[in-house]
Amino acid sequence: MRREMLLGTIINAAAIAVASLIGVRIRNVPEEISKLIMQALSLALIVIGIQMAVTGENFLIIIISLTSGALLGSWLQIDERLNQLGQWLGTKIGKNSQGNVAQAFVSSTLIFATGAMAIIGPLEAALRGDHSLLFTKSSIDGFSALIISSTLGIGVFFAAIPVFLYQASITLLANQIDAFVPNMLMDMIIAEITCIGGILILAIGLNLLNVINVKIANLLPSLVIVVLLVVSFQRLL
């Protein structure tokens, strides 16, 4: 039964892994074209991030979540730890460009795991047995992994692991969540999480264009804090 619930997530992780391996194989793209592709992808991420960010309904919650998440993430040194993990992966696979492995791992993990589909897809799979949204996400993530890995390298491959663990956790917890979280509250939570995720993806796009240099991973606690704030605000109303 659990294997059936995780089917969409398994395919999603496999699509990222396989596509990234293919992307690494086609890295002989001229530098000018490779740079243009990455710029095009960055611009697409910016547009996607903006579209997701405007779904938020309570901007006060978003501001508090981001600032609190930044403080907590900086204290926990999440960005530094993820980059250290990426550099460790670089040494294990014998790559000289360890920084690129770290950048590819961190950026692609955030891209694949912070969207609304990464939340709604596992919920649909668990509660309704519907994997169609995750299948759609798999095709999008696969194409993105192909493009990103052709530019940034093998680090994208390892993003399949946290994506699988993240979405599998949501799927396995979904039945318990459905038992005590009303549909209206769940919709509010998804809307605010999507907004935070959109802001993070927007920042990734700007980072890849070298417009800004934000330690995006340090903002990840915002995704947890926003849920707690939505629930708290709802109880006060």
Tell me what the structure shows:
This protein is mostly helical. It has one domain (1-236). It has eleven helices and no strands. Helix 10 runs antiparallel to helix 11. The chain is globular and about 55 Å long.
| Total strand segments | 0
Proportion of helical residues: over 70%
Number of helices: 11
Structural class: mainly alpha
Q: What percentage of amino acids are in beta strands?
A: under 5%
Q: Kindly report the oligomeric state of this protein.
A: single chain
Poorly predicted regions: none
The helix-strand sequence is HHHHHHHHHHH
Q: Mean of residue pLDDT? A: 82
Radius of gyration: 18 Å
Number of domains: 1
Report on the biggest sheet: none
Amino- and carboxy-terminal Cα gap: 39 Å
Morphology call: globular
Write out key terms for the chains shown.
237 residues, mainly alpha, 80% helix, DUF554 domain-containing protein, transmembrane helix, membrane, transmembrane
SSE layout and pairings?
Layout: H1 2-5, H2 7-25, H3 31-53, H4 59-76, H5 78-92, H6 98-113, H7 117-128, H8 132-152, H9 160-180, H10 183-208, H11 222-236
Helix pairs in contact: 2-8, 2-9, 3-8, 3-10, 4-11, 5-6, 6-8, 7-8, 7-9, 10-11
Short description:
With 237 residues, the protein is an all-alpha fold. The protein is built from 11 helices and no strands.
